[in-house]
Amino acid sequence: MKKLLKIFVALLPFLSLSISFNSNENEFIRFEPIAKKATTVDDYFSDIDAFSLSREQLFNKLQSKVWDGWKRQSYDALDSAFIETDFVNGYLVDIYSNTSRLTPSSTGNYKNEGDTWNKEHLIPKSWWGGSKGGPNGEGGDMFNMYPTDGKINGMRSNYVLGETSNPTNTSNNGYSKLGPSSFSGYDGIVFEPNDEWKGNIARSYFYFALKYVTYTNSSYTEGNGKDVFNKTGTYGLTDYSTSLFLKWNKHLEKSQYEKERCERVYKIQNNRNPFIYHPEWADYIWGNIPLTKIEPTSLSISPSSLRLKQGNSHQLVCTVTPSNASNSIIWTSLNNDIATVSNNGLVEAKSIGKTNIKATSTLNASINASIEIEVHNDKIKIEGISLPDSIDLKIGQSKNIDVSYIPLDTEEKGYTLSINDDSIAQVISNNTLLGLKEGIATLTATSSINTSIKASTTIIVQEQKGFNLAKQTSDLEDGDSLIIAYPEKNVAAGSFKDKYLQSVSASFSSNKEKIEAPSNEIEIFTLEKNTNSFSFINNAKQKLGASSSKALQLNNGETSWTIQINEGKAIIKPLSVSQPLLYNIKSPRFKTYSKADDSLVYPSIYVSKSTSNLDKTNALLYVSAFLKKTGQECLLMNVTLNTWNDLKSEYESLSEETKSYIKTNYSSEELSEFRQRYELIINKYGYGDFIFDITPTSIVYSKNKNSGNLLPITILTSIASICLISITIIIIKKRKKN
Fold first, then answer.
1. Are residues 125 and 240 in the same domain?
2. Which of 12, 494, 551, 669 could form a disulfide bond with 502, CB atoms 3.0-4.6 angstroms apart?
3. What contacts 669, CB < 8 A, 6 or more positions away?
4. Are residues 160 and 236 in the same domain?
5. Which carries the bigger pLDDT value, residue 22 or residue 447?
6. 731 and 599 within one domain
């Protein structure tokens, strides 16, 4: 068996020869793995039948689920993670204040509510020993961590959560309160959040008790934690916190937002808080409240009707009303000979005809819905083509674009791409575009089957600038384009806002010495060199200035700066103000401060001399011409010697810089299609290698230039491979039976 598999693997290169090209003359067939899709909520909990489980069994299954596949992240990673999960409609959602309008870049000294935000440990870190990240990742778990107003977070401190009828301190509008407990079971000082967030917070505590308190060896009972958690008690909580959080669990005011945030968190850390979707499970586990199934009042199926080609399948979706009703349904087909349906609603078209697919509630058979299915064997015609809304390119950049059909399963595939101005951009292979010069052009995709079916989109080509790390002051010249950045945090200075430059993400090379393609969010300054200083001029022709009050300004204050660069770090100071421009790690922004320290650090400067991309562009144009000229001849297995000599002459006429680009980037992804085609022709026909003047190491199929001998070779190797595959499958099946 092992020997056969080894032989099969050895013959794979020959098998690939017979399927090397697609029907399009410039397109190699690509086999790529299918990306794993995110699991839906229903799929995520599909293996849990809570009604058949005891409290302990349900608790144990949920505990395994919240750990399974969980991606632990650091406390520091939350700075960017919160932007994905809690930055909504221009502000960070705050569970402690209803007047703060904070953004990720908001900073301050916590003096006033609304000044700044920080990362709130809903379960205080002092309860587990004080480390921000926690011994088991608690301080990076986004069901425990929330962005909150800095002042109100300080008021909460590490007090136990509770209810107070006589608060001694409150946030604006009395939204959150601090005072002596008025809830039975605890008589100390408590922090009471607003009613609309109590349900969310309770379900976070249930999650924490489930995931950490009852599972890890860590203690969560230091300080006030002993009044909330009990590692030997009822599922991790004390009697006091059990009663409090069961009461709060009834609050569902923010339930929809809570679910939306949970899905955003899932994309980052790959687990869900089960009690957000099933608060009744918390009632069952901690309150011993029996689970009851809510009977739906109606069902609906999407789509409302379906026309399906014989042999194809389609997933139906059944929606229950109300949304918290039992979604336990039975799928049935009126005629299984025409179409079948699985337990989860997947329809398979079997034979031509019409039938009905029905969904019925398991709680009440009178609650049902059905749709008509028509199975056909017609040819699925193309109805349209879809292109991206727009395509951004840099000069010299090549980019693959996504082209899809409407409907996706049409049998009328095939299209051509054209650009109305090929001096701006060109199609260099089937789905690859190349930017040539700055400008705007229109890309059109036309169906090869029905030329009246077209789709168009806009191509925007801009100059591409590579920004290199300035290692000494002499690297700076008048007229340079530059970026101020802090590479250690992968950030650069963005646009001016409220006395500082915003901190935005930037993509650096692995050694941090280059910013390849800055995003539109990054501020690119033009450097103006004065006698003893420099000026930074933004795209709006405004000079960056600074005042003695540590505030940045535009066209105001001191607009001349001194720059001293040592080992890649820049000391940038206003000429008449002794306050350097620094990056604030704790409150991400670029601003002038009194002096540098552990959290206020010197930035780096990245400079672009606007070097030309002409060599790269000419190289990619040659590659494009090569693929076009050899495409049809490769399909016919007849790349002539005349064609090869023409290509050789064209290559030799290129500049030495262009040829050097091809050689240097020969193994890159950018030239992968060219490389495969080039080596295939050399190996198939025995033609000379005019790029490196050596014989490639890949398999030589034939040195005979008579291409007529190649067809039988390809057919024989394909037949041999197919036979070998068949033999292998038979042996595997026999072994399985034994």
1. yes
2. 494
3. none
4. yes
5. 447
6. no
